[in-house]
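Incident log, structure service

09:12 report received: a user says their structure output differs between two submissions of the same chain.
09:20 pulled the input from the user's history:
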Amino acid sequence: MAKKEFISNRKCSLCGEIHGMALCPIINAKLEKHDKSKNRNFLMANVLLECIHKKISFQYLLKEYNELVSEWNDFPNDGIPVVCLDTPTEYFAAALDCNASKFFKKPEITTREFVDIISGDREDDFDITPNFDGKSGSIILNLNHVPAIEDLEENYLWPPEMHLEKKFFANKEPEYRLGIQVISVPKTRFQSVDTCSCYELELVSETNGNLRDFFEKKYDECWTDIAIDKSLDDEKFNIWINRLIRATQNNLLNWEKMRYHDRFSTVYGGTDVELYFDSDMKGNSSICIRTNKGLGTHFYWSEYQEWFNNNKSYWNRFNENIDEFRPWDDPMPELLPEEKIGEPLLKDNSSIRESIVKLEILFESIKKSEEIKISKDLRTKHIEYADTVVSSASLICNSRAHSILPYIGIIKLLIPDNEIINYQIYTGYCRDCDKYYIFERDYEEMLKAGIPLCNIFDKDNPQSKSNIPFRYKSQSVLSAMGYTVDKNVDLSSDRRHEILLEALKKDFFSIHDLLDFLNWLVATRKTQKKYTSAIEKWNEDINFIENYKKSERKTVYISSIHKK
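09:34 re-ran on a clean worker, output below:
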């Protein structure tokens, strides 16, 4: 007989409705508001941190408090009806012999402390929630054997397990949640080893910060291990392999050889790609694709893998190096040549055969473009101070409908002795976006020669000040030479004037361009109080430049002035 599910018929004391096993909408709305707050205080997480510092069992402390609440609930109606709000914090503070303020910290401090605790060389593994489609669900990092936690709970038969979850939502950023599986029963001599009472406790959560950085670094190392398997004749494979072949043949991708034989990785826009190509057994080749740090897809020939693994297991029984596994009355079999493996399966599968041919085309294209050399046939294009250059892992525009044209880009660099030189670099130009794309490795190499006098867009940090385009030639040059009015740098007036004079004497720009730039700075910021100090310095520099070589300038009589 099936167990009858318990449904509460209690009327809510707030709204008078019966909610069954659900929360009252009034309470639920406030809990959701709490979950979305950026200034959340992670009380239980901070209690656990204090337990770690004091070497006191967190699980036993929770059991104490649970017993306290249970006893209060058993009191008659004229007893204590409501637990005071400060009771948990004060009880934990008394138990841990500390001030309750220890449990109230800035969220970023709490997450940073936990990242320090869970960091280390361990055999962690990833998992995904059932039916995860890449858009709604979770990728879970199981944090196995965290020393600080295991040492704390040595009296429990099962050490508590921690996990870091990346939870995906349909219409908002993923959330990173650190949780712990709390075991409520301590180890006793009579305890059954087959059962355990436990529950999940969420410690901290965030969308950006220390947890995200820790998770993504771990996930980057092994995202292919949990990628969803799909066949080589899948339509999505056909779309991606054609994109990759075309981009590779046009030298728009930077393929890097991995530690393993015939394994390569690259980034196509915001998509990570890993290719494994087996030259001897082409049917064993596969490719993994992951977009925007989400769940990856592994395209491979499943029938071949099953056939090959079964045969491989059989052949290993007869390997001369492991004679103990070979029955002495069995003859040594004649092994098939490796190039013959899989041919029977390919015979009647034209779509798979075409897919393997495309993988081979991609592999051959990668080998030809492992070292991109600037072709003498490419046209040159001068990149000016107001132009935007995007440093990226690939020369792919954010809009895949746009086409990228290859050029030899010529960028002006300010070298250490404050001279300007022309520097050649392989670049892809998007005419629609009016942006230049260069490989990250080439950008790093260019910085060794000097500072580029153009706007370099930081793709990883879109809000960076360096992503504000230059309006004036003097703006890019002065920025490279170290001119600033930032009060944190506190550059003296004499030093600012030295930089301005050096730039003018070397004809990096005209006096007119410089004055236009400084006056534009003052005009666009004069209504903002935070720029009061900066405006004073700019006005001082304007007066200094206006008086520079004043006697050498021609006098011009102005008959009238028209205000626009």
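09:41 both user submissions now match this output. Likely a transient worker issue. Closing.
09:42 reviewer note: Confidence is low (pLDDT under 50) at residues 186-196, 320-339, 462-467. The chain is about 35% helix and 20% strand.
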